[in-house]
Amino acid sequence: MTTLMINKTKYEVELKGHETLLEVLRDKLGLTGTKTSCMESECGACVVNIDKKAILSCITLAKDVEEKEVTTIEGLSDGETLHPAQQAFLDKGAAQCGFCIPGMIMSSNALLEKTHTPTQEEMEYALDGNICRCTGYIKIFEAVREAGQVMKKKGH
Amino acid sequence: MSTAINKEYINPVGKSVPKIDGKGIVTGQIKYVFDVSFPNMLVGKMIRSPHPHARIISIDTSKAEKLPGVKAIVTAKDTHGIKFGSNEYFFPHTVDQQALEGDKVRYIGDEIGAVAAIDEETAEKAISLIDVQYEVLPAVFDMVEAMKPGAPQIHTAMNNIAVILPVNFGNVERALKESDYVREDVFYSQAAAHCAMEPHVCVGQFENFSNKITLWSSSQAPFKCREALAKCLKMDLNDVRVIKLAVGGGFGGKLEMLPMDFASCLLSKKCGGLPVKITYTREEEFAFSRRKHGMLYKLKSGVKKDGTLMAISGEVIADGGAYCSYGPTVMAAAIMRTFMVYKIKNFRINGYRVYTNNPISGAIRGFGGVQSGFSIESHMDLLAEGIGMDPVEFRLKNITEPNMVTVNKMYLTSNGLRECIEKAIVAADWKGKRGKQKHLCRGIGIGIAADVMGSKMYKSHESAGSILKVEEDGSVYLFTGAADTGQGSNTALSQIAAQELGVSYSRIRCKSGDTEITPFDTGSFASRVTFISGNATKRAATDAKKQILTIIAEELKTNIEDLDIQAEQVINKKDNKALMTFDKALELCYSFNYGRQIIGRGSYNPKTTPVDFRTGEGNVSGSYGFEAQIAEVEVNKETGEVKILKMWDAHDIGKAINPQSVEGQIEGSIAMGIGYTFYEDLKFKNGRVVNPNFANYRLPKSIGTVPIETIMIETNDPEGPFGAKGMGEASLLPTSAAIANAIHDAVGIRMKELPITPDKVLKALKEKELAEKK
C-alpha cells in the first residue's frame, strides 16, 4: 500500500508501480476534476500542484509523489468559498468550455504562490504549457492578474 | 426559493453575468462525458483500416474473441448496412458513410469494426489479433488529380466529384467586358483540425429487454445524433435517448455522428447491455475525426475605375476526403457568403466538392467562410490596388446595406457592416497608419465578413423549443434542446428567460440537450443558438409570465393587460406600482384556490426560404451578422517572421446578451484565426496524417498572445431576441485576409497560400527583390 496525501486527505492506494498520478486521481480516487487532452504532456489539462509547483500528472508516477503534498482542483478551495483564482476565472469570463480550466487554474495558482503581481511575460511563460482552444487567453490573463490582487489583499 | 435572490442579476440582458455552470467548471465538479463511469463499464476501441483505399476480402475475429477479457466484437455484419450523412435533406446522394464499412475502405482509419473489452490494453491486443484481408486499390490524394478521368474511383460519383455547385447570377461575361480592371488570382487554404480539448467520447448502453438505447455523447447536436442512430440501427426515435453533458468544446467537429457512436451501442447490445465507453485518443482525434476542407479558390473579377465591383467569377475546389459529411453545404456556404457582404449583380462561381482518399473533411467553425474569407478579402484588396483605391474606400463603396435584398434573394434586415468598418478604422487609426509605416516594416490590413444565424440542416425546419417550469417556491427551470458546447448558450438563454419573465438570473436552472427530456433543437451550429433557441426561450418565458399574470388578474379582479412582471415584482403598468413580489405571485398560483402549474412553452422556426442549390438562390437565415477586422503587423525581413501588434474587431451582434461572453467569442475566434493563418496545418503523406499530436500540430499558446480590441455594434435586429444576433463564428472569417493584407501593406508581398510561414515570407521577399532588380 502506498500512502498519498491529496488535498490534505490521506489515501491508501494499491499500486503496481506504473500508474500515473492522473490515472490514480481519476480512475482510483474518482477525482475527475483533473483532465487530460493528450496523455503525452503537451496540453496541460492534467496539471496539479505538488509541493506548490505546477506538475503534469499524466507523466508523473503516482508512487513518486508519496510523502508529497498534492493539490488538485477539488482541493483548491476550502469547500465553502472559492479560491481567489477560481473566483477570478469565474468573474472575468476566463472559462468557456472549461475542459482546460482545472489545469489552467492549477498552473495559475503555482505562479501566484510565487508572486501576486505577475508580469504579462511571467503569466505567458507560466501558462504556456496549458492549451485553451476557446478563449484566446486574454481573459485568462485578466483573471490571473485579478486573483493575484485579491490574494495579496487577503494575505494568501 | 432556497437561495437568496441576487439583485445584481435583475434585468440580466446586457450584463456580464457569470456562466450559469461556471462554479462547476472552476471547481472541477462539472461532469463531461469524458468523466462518466458506470459499474461494469467496458472500454471500446475502433478497428481501423491501415490502407487508404482497399476492398475488404474477409474479417476473421475468431482469435480475438478467444482472448480473455474481450466481451464483444462488432463489424458490418452487425449493422443493417444503412448509410448516414449530414446533408440528407439537400443532397440525398451524399449520404455515403456506413456505421461500419463492410465492403470497402476509403481512408487510413476507416472504421470496419469495434471491440469491447475489460480494459484498454485488452481491447488493443484484441484488435491486433483480428485478421483482415484486403485487396489494396490504387488511391488518390490530390483533389485536382482526383477529378481527372481515369483517377481511382472512390465512390460512384463521376470523376470523384460528389457535388457540383453552380452559383450563377447576372451576366458575368458582359460585366467583365465593361470593367476597367480585371484580374485573376488563385488562393489556397489548408486543412486544419478542430482540437476541442475534450476528445470525442461516448458511452452507449443497450437495454436488452426493453430494446432501448441510451447514448451519452460529447455532441453539438444530440437530436441529429438521435435521428441517425435510430435510422441506422432501425429503431424508433423514442427508443433512442441521446444525452449531452458539459461539452469540452466542439467547433463543428462534434456536429455529426462518428462510427464510434454507433459502435458503442452495437457493442453494448452484443455483450448483454453492459455500458461501453469509447474515448478517442488525441491521435485518433487528429487523424480520424473530421477536419477543415483544404480549398483551392480561383477568382476572376472586374471593377470600374470608380471602384464599382462589376463581377466576381471563379471556381472553388474542396478536398473532401473519403466521405461527404457536411461537405456540400460547407461548399455552398463558402461561395454564398459573398452575397451577404458585397452588393454584386454578376456572379458565377462553380464549386466542386471532391472525394479523395484523405481523412474526411466536414464542418468546422466558419463553415467554409474561413477559406472564402481569406480568398475573397485578399482578392478585394488586390482589385482596389489595381485601380489605386484605398481598400477601405473600396469596401465602403461596395458593401451591402440594411434592408436590402441580394441578387440571390437573401433578405438582409439589420446590417451594421458600414458602421463596423467606420468604427474599426477610427479605433485602429487606419488613415494615420495605412501605407505610412513601411520604413518600420509595419502595415495595417482589413477584412470584412458576414455570417448567418442558422440554416436549415435538419429535414425542412430548424426549429428550437424551450420549456420554462416555474415552481411554487419560485424556482425557474429552463429546458432547452440547444447544446451548450462551452460557448455559453445555457447562460445566454437563461439570461433571456430571466429578462422576459421579469426575474433575477440567479433563479434560473438550465437543463439542456437531452432528447428524452428537453424540447427539440437542431443543435449548436451556424451561429444559430442565441437567435433561434433564444427566440424559443423568450417565447416560453412570455407564455409562463402570461400564465402567472392570468391568475393574478383573476385574484385582483383586474385586466391582465394592465399587469406585468418586472424586476422581481408584479406591477400595475398604469402607474408602475408594485402589487406583489414574484415569490408571492407564485405562492398564489399554487395556492388552494388556484393550484395551477406554471409551464411555459415556446418554439421558434425562423422565416427563411429554402436554398435552391442549382442556382444558389434562397434566404438561408432569419437574420445576418456582420463584422470588420483590422490587423496591424510587423514583418521581420531577416527571419520572415510576422508579429501581430494588435487586432481590432468591430462586430454587429444586434445586441450583446452577455458582453463578456461576446468578447470571449471574438477573442477565441481571432486566436483560432491567427493559428490557422500562421501554423495550424494538418499535413498528409499518402493519406496519412503526419502530425497527429500537439507537439507537431501547433496551436495558439499563451506566449505571444495578441492584444485585441473589441467594438460591439448593436443594431437591434427586429427579429432577434432583445435584438440579438448570433456571433460565434464571424470573427474567424476575415482574420487570415486582414493579416495577409497587412503584410502586403508592410513589405509589399502578397501571400496567396496559407499558412503564412516564415519560409514563404522569405521566398516572397526574395522574389520581390529579384523582380524589382529586373
Task: Summarize this entry quickly.
The complex is a heterodimer of chains A (156) and B (774). Chain A is α+β, with helices and mostly antiparallel strands and 156 residues long.
Give an overview in words:
The complex is a heterodimer of chains A (156) and B (774). Chain A is α+β, with helices and mostly antiparallel strands and 156 residues long. The mean pLDDT of chain A is 97. In chain A, 35% of the residues lie in helices and 13% in strands. Chain A has 5 helices and 5 strands, in the order ββαβββαααα. In chain A, helix 2 packs across helix 5. In chain A, strand 3 (47-50) and strand 4 form a beta hairpin. A 5-stranded mixed beta sheet of chain A has the order 2-1-5-3-4, sandwiched between helices. Chain B is globular, with a radius of gyration of 27 Å. The mean pLDDT of chain B is 97. Chain B has a 7-stranded mixed beta sheet with strand order 3-7-1-14-11-12-13, sandwiched between helices. In chain B, strands 9-17-16-15-10 form a 5-stranded mixed beta sheet, with helices on both faces. Chain B has a 4-stranded mixed beta sheet with strand order 20-28-29-32, sandwiched between helices. Chain B contains 19 helices and 32 strands. By secondary structure, chain B is an alpha+beta fold.
